[in-house]
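Recall that a protein's primary structure is simply its ordered list of amino acids. Everything else, from secondary elements to tertiary packing, is in principle encoded there. The following example makes that idea concrete.
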Amino acid sequence: MITEQIKREIADGSLYAITLDTNVFDKNALKLNAGLLKQIEQFKGTSVSFVLSEIVYREVLSHLKNNLSESQSSLTASLNDVRKWWGIAGGYIDKVKSEIFECSPESVAQSRLSDFRRRTDCQIILLDNQPILSEITRRYFSGKPPFGDKSSKKHEFPDALALLSLDAWAETNATKIIAVSSDNDWKKYGAESGRLIVIDDLSEALSFFQEDSDILCEILSLRIANKEFDSAYRIIIDALRDQIYINDFVVEASASYSFESDIDEVAVMKFKFDIENAFENRYYLKPVHGSMETLVAEASLIVSMSVYCFFSFYTSGNWGKGGKEPMGFASLTTKIDFPMDVLITFIRSGEDYNITAVEVISQTVNVDFGKVAPDWDEPEEPDFEPDWDETPSDQGILTF
């Protein structure tokens, strides 16, 4: 379904609901009070319903609880090592742990998700009393979406429960639903359904509800391109530097020895707008929430960074603690260009708009160091001086 048709159905009232799959929450690092997930709050008190399948709600709760439990276990192990190797009194360590972990992972997860539900006025579509089991059985044995012909199709039962309950809710409420998911089974089901429209990008889905903001995004995009926002470039680069560590940096490397790695520093050098992923392939800004006084828009950037990483090499054996024999160290720096999305908030001031906030959307950043090896020489200090380049590229993409 083309964009204009979706917007027409939103305008005429035949499409007034939006839902998310679990993978959308995971992609946004389960940050329920930040980034794109926070923008769901715009639908509270409006004619647009934000709904979640009970299956998705339970899966998000489980993922939150697992992440909290894993981080608690990791920090507890580290604090125990500190007590052992630094000779810190056990009572002090126990006090630190009790202050940090005042509540259980289960209660924290439930509290965060309940707060998200309250702030977004989320409606949970319960599975109780839904006459969908016969339809699930029929689809399972006939290989219809979300089931396939593969032997692992039993794992798709949660998807089937979620999708059919959403479809039944849409039919009962005489509406269509925009369902945001990157799952292929959801997409296949959406292609057959007359009520679920599956979109794989949350910011794109939000943009469908911002009809009055499209023109403003076009105007502001042109102003940024023409460098009419005096402080825009500095605000964005400062935000990238201040918030760069909210991303999850993953080191990729190969070596003759086993190794452990630790990223010491990430320096943002410059950025450019990524026109290939721009809104409608033309505009730097994609509207995700607009009002009379405020516009929140997503911008896709290519960010140039220098990444400084410390490697410790070892061989496995019976030597020392854990059977690891140290083989040396290395401090290495590499430069990468990586796509990142940011949310830019514009506030109306008279007849003009000012940028008041830039938020980096958290994601996983893979950093490839290639072939690495121990360095027995003294490591050189990395050069983190910014490489400013404010000359437009040949493709018309501005670099800053």
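Residues 25 and 60 are 7 Å apart (CA to CA). Residues 388-400 have pLDDT under 50 and may be disordered.
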